[in-house]
Amino acid sequence: MSTGYQIKDQSMPYYLTFQVVFWVDIFTRTVYRDVIIDSLKYCQKEKGLEIFAYVIMSNHIHFIVRSSTNDLSGTLRDFKKYSSKKIIETIIDNSAESRKEWMLRLFQHAAKRQNKKGDYQLWTHENHAIELSSNNFIETKVRYIHDNPVKAGIVNNPEDYRYSSAISYTDGIGLLDVIPVSFSVKTLR
Question: Which residue segments constitute the domains of the chain, with CATH numbers given?
Answer without folding.
Answer: 14-170 (3.30.70.1290)
